[in-house]
Amino acid sequence: MSVDMNSQGSDSNEEDYDPNCEEEEEDEDPGDIEDYYDGVANDVEQQGADAFDPEEYQFTCLTYKESESTLNEHMASLAATLKVSHAVAKLVLVSFHWQISEILERHKSNPAQLLVEARVQPTSSKHAMVHSSHHCAVCMQFVRKENLLSLACQHQFCRSCWEQHCTVLVKDGVGVGVSCMAQDCLLRTPEDFVFPLLPSEELKDKYRRYLFRDYVESHYQLQLCPGADCPMVIQVQEPKARRVQCNRCNEVFCFKCRQMYHAPTDCATIRKWLTKCADDSETANYISAHTKDCPKCNICIEKNGGCNHMVSNSLNTGFLLFSADFCWMCLGDWKTHGSEYYECSRYKENPDIVNQSQQAQAREALKKYLFYFERWENHNKSLQLEAQTYQRIQEKIQERVMNNLGTWIDWQYLQNAAKLLAKCRYTLQYTYPYAYYMESGPRKKLFEYQQAQLEAEIENLSWKVERADSYDRGDLENQMHIAEQRRRTLLKDFHDT
Fold first, then answer.
1. Is 418 in contact with 387 (CB distance < 8 Å)?
2. What is the residue extent of each domain of the chain?
3. Where does the RING-type domain start and stop, copy by copy (predicted)?
4. CA-CA distance, 219 to 245, in Å (whole number)?
5. Under CATH, which architecture does the 59-124+131-254 domain have?
6. Would the pTM count as exceeding 0.90?
7. Which of 87, 238, 309, 461 is 20 to 30 A off residue 144, Cα-Cα?
8. What is the pLDDT of residues 66-122, one digit of tens each?
């Protein structure tokens, strides 16, 4: 890659039923290459053990009607077995995350305790006696007996208070969480108890939406698509932190946490990392700038591509003064990176830091964080720059096809190379939060070694993608194969299975 010198830093029908309609939209990454996981298999043939894909994951995209049908099927079956109403069966399923085998096992051993744990029946010690008084326990007004309503706990309240209670909670976005008004009573209200108490169809529609949201979110095999205004539900057999993609809005996310896909980092760790990055964003601001100083001439330079292999030329009145090849990350001579790239991506811990002052430990902690943050941020920016390269490749292919220099299929390997580069770099970016929180030891050394191997091959691939016309198809596809093999090896050994 060359560098620029002297630059400066710089609510509807059921089919479209949307359980997320009141949630805020998430910003899209402007540097993303759409569907870069698709369409590259033909150019990256894996053989034998290399054919194992640690990210392979079976999932199904369900419409609202399909997911509602699935939920109702489970509910009807359980209601018949437990001999309870459909509404009560749903609350039992929610309480046990729709794991029917566990529910049936508990029912077999102690059916009464099952309902108590599901918060649809009170314990015997908290079972209140039916009051002969016709006073509401909330408004303390005398009401007729037929206007007093209660759940299985027998805590009686007038219909007007129940209506107000349910209306306020539903307006606040509560679904299955609507509970008894009595102090310290945790019994949940079945939906067939709540619906008649809601005063308008608009409020009933909201309650129906919140119920559906809660039913899906409590189901261990289902996840709502986080895409903006998308009503789809993702279904899996075994819930894992794996990449899934909605077939309606094309949103890609981790099934387990519904956040951006983050392999090899686990869900809890990526949450910690993103929170830390947000909290320390001002501290890290100075290293997130686009510019650095050339290590040879100290002229301010700017990266103009995704590759970290810098080739800068300093010109003076048209005469070449020197040429420098160096690494954008460590500013070291690129010639040594064939053997020392491992050192460039590995943070060197200070073994004596525990014996030093608190101020020294704080400085060391900040130094370590900035080391990993800079590399995390650098690969994110490289993804955005390489997305521009991808667009240029598409334009170049289109131009060649229009000039009768081959068909689209003849040149598609160039597009696939750019897609694979994005796929590999995306994985590499998420290795840095993993390494940051990883404890020192033999396993971390193995991880850092594989991380460095992957990084080296990605830089080789990035260099060749940006100069695709200088390499024949076989050379480029061979580099694609090597990079993808490194990526799969790292995920196979370190991605949570």
1. no
2. 59-124+131-254, 267-495
3. 132-348
4. 19
5. 2-Layer Sandwich (3.30)
6. no
7. 87
8. 999 999 999 999 999 999 999 999 999 999 999 999 999 999 999 999 999 999 999
Catalytic one among 307, 327, 344, 424?
Answer: 307
Cα angle 185-80-181, degrees, rounded to a multiple of 5: 15
The pLDDT tens digits for 161-200 are 999 999 999 999 999 999 999 988 999 999 999 999 999 9
Q: Which stretch of DSSP H or E encloses residue 322?
A: strand 319-327
Query: Between the CA of residue 166 and those of 160, 217, 273, what are the distances in Å?
Result: 10, 21, 39
Instruction: Give the integer Cα–Cα distance in Å for 487 and 343.
Output: 19
CA angle 290, 296, 299 (to 5 degrees): 45
For residues 359 and 222, what is the distance between their CA atoms, to the nearest angstrom? 48
90 vs 208: CA distance, rounded Å: 13
Buried b (16+ CB within 10 A) or exposed e, 274-291: eebbeeeeeebeeeeeee
CATH number for the domain formed by residue range(s) 267-495: 1.20.120.1750
Contacts of 135 (CB under 8 A, 6+ apart): 141, 142, 143
245 strand-pairing partners: 252
- 263 φ, ψ (degrees, to nearest 5): -65, 140
Phi, psi of 314 (to 5 degrees): -100, 125
